[in-house]
């Protein structure tokens, strides 16, 4: 059935593609990861991609019918589908990301992107825009490569065999390759089936120890180096006949020197030092803690005062009541009339901090929690004791308290009980006072009966249920007759 399917017009290789890498000096190439499997076929086409599958080795088991939902590698039209999707994405982003869209439309063949530009910055922008465009449909470029070091995003991952910084008498990279080969020959035979492993072992036995057969040829005598540099015709005998020392007895051949020179200092990537406990970190870094904290405090204060330093004269006019002055460390402080007092300098001339700084807001939130969510007056007073004056501190601290979750809960009003309905005798209109009354005693009181005699007494309070008028009667006793 595949021979009846048209290949499509997009699959034809664009004539611009092969020479695109040769046009400009910075080339970039990339490969779209799992391109075919990222594209879903329409339901009408899926039924033409059915296949029969039987589980297990039993031929009598019933087969199952499956169908592919993704674009297959074997279809003749699959490359056309893939390139159509990529160019459709490029058309969508042609105005927003023209460089990446142009690279996908003109310099992409199936899943390979190859483009060349003039400058490294343009190459980086091309990579960024292409990644952004293909990510719209969940595509990704798995490997970006470039001939420019500033653009290449795939440096060698294996850092074990790194070429030395300066020339050595014995190239260590070749030695490490030889050692790796000898270890491979010794160990690889055990990983094959018996037939192959037996013949590899026979080869090893017939050739003896590979390490003993390794020889070193200096670069000046190595014929392989003749292919990498221009040489005169007379020197071709070196290539055809080999080095002269090969014609001499084997005992006089060049031997390799085990005493290698030390490597030049190679800058290694620093490994971060980790600590299992915070106490260990504090103990490790506890050198001149007081001095470091003092200098850090001055840096933070200057960061907070950055907005005040922009126009110092304007700041002094705006806050003239504070008599702003600059100390020896460049910190703005308040003046005042306490120079003759015995107070510390930090209290006589506190540091001025603007309320609009984010660091000052963090300081206010910290002090609000430190002083147990008390009022702004308490916080301002304690900050003054620490030598800090926040300009506009009242408004700032009120804002901090308004946003504090604990304070918002504490300021909530208690639930109030609803009062019951008033009785009918209290709400009758046009009744004379004391038509309906309520009575109660309060006391005891000392009542002076004569000059030298005082007796206990109580007061009867009579209140009108309608008008709330009150009448008081003195009672020496609380019996019925007195009432």
From TrEMBL:
Pfam families referenced in this protein's UniProt entry, alphabetically = RVT_1 (PF00078)
* UniProt xrefs under InterPro entries: DNA/RNA_pol_sf (IPR043502), RT_dom (IPR000477)
Annotated Reverse transcriptase domain residues? 22-142
The name on file for this protein is Reverse transcriptase domain-containing protein
| Organism this protein belongs to | Paramuricea clavata (Red gorgonian)
